[in-house]
Amino acid sequence: MTHEAAPPGPAKARATPARTLLPLFLPAVVVGAVSSLLFIGVSKLADELKDVLWTDLPDALGIGGYSSLWMIVMLTTTGILVGLVVWKAPGHAGPDPATVGLQAKPLPLFILPGLLVATVLMLAGGPSLGPENPIIATNVALAFWAGRRFAPSAPGELWLVLAEAGTIGALFGTPVAAALVVSEALAGRQIKGQLWDNLFGPLTAAAVGSIITSLLGHASFDLGLPPLGSPGWSDVLAALVIASAAAVLGMAGVHALPYVHKVFAFLRHPMAALPVGGLVLGLLGCLGGPLTLFKGLDQVAEIARNPDGWSAGRFALMSVVKLAALIVATSCGFRGGRIFPSVFVGASFGLCAHALVPSVPPSLGLAAGVLGTLLAVTRQGWVSLFTAAALVSSPTIIALLCIASLPAWLLVTGRPQMQLHEDGSQIR
Predict the structure, then answer these.
(1) Using CA atoms, how far apart are residues 231 and 364, in angstroms rounded to an integer?
(2) Quick one: DSSP state of residue 305?
(3) Whether the Cβ atoms of residue 135 and residue 97 lie closer than 8 Å to each other
(4) What is residue 108's three-state secondary structure?
(5) Residues 6+ apart with CB under 8 A from 190
(6) d(C-alpha 314, C-alpha 353), whole Å
(7) What is the reported pLDDT for 106?
């Protein structure tokens, strides 16, 4: 009796020797540190300017800092100032923000001053965008320039990956987020060596970036919500429904983006598109209230501290207004990213579910809402799962979110993304 030989399995990737990985350590440390310090510097400068614009100045004028009039004035003025920067700065403060994602191509250095000024003005002035895309683009450009100059024999892509990882580690306050993003990016590529070998440099940069951010006292993602106890079947059902419904809401914003972008494209000039966009954002702020302004992370912490402080209708209104503000800010040309405001959209949507059905724990509603929204907006499963889980420090929530991500992913996968090609068409 003969036995057929079993077909050979896939060849196991050979581990990279330590002597090959060790030289990556010091460059990764430097890139991670610089990435974190630039993020912290921009954030602190924007916070100082925000205090002047929204507290000191209106107090001196005897006007309510978050009155409807002041929100309209400030958002419109921010649009004018950013419009001037985009119009006059060398390189026009970088590419159209609607065409930019987390992975950035290295920009020429002469563009960076205008991009950073536009970012600080945006963060301080109130538009609903986060700092992630401009900060990543700046750090990538700096790391690529330094790497080409001081280590020309190293592959150029190395500096891009280190800068992205270092910045994401700084933004999220943990290297895990960067490791997940890099792993997802590597999934479709032919890589040499084992996955952990390829993560050695990026994880080092992310760890340094995150620890510097933590040591210098920057806010973390943990909202201090009460942990979820042992889940019941009702919790599983709630997570499935909320995450899927939030994904549908997020996809509504995805489908609206190219149409809103086209409207602002008709205005052609940044000194028309950005002031008009700022005016629209001011009016949306009047409708949704002050919590729907700015990047959204501090505002998420505020609504999480008092999940029963607003009605279901108010949470729903804030969620829709924030999503609309995100689309307008991206379309009219404000420089910024979409992750942070999307977290607020999902959080307010999830707390709306808690307000409608009080038996739904607020931590579960918030995390599931953030998961579904981020899946629709970013189309990055690991980032969405990690961010939603990081907001609620509870081991139980992870299993529920993994289950809830499955139908939500089926709703968004293969559909257009919240990012455009340079010709205005959507990326799929």
Answers:
(1) 10
(2) H
(3) no
(4) coil
(5) none
(6) 12
(7) 87
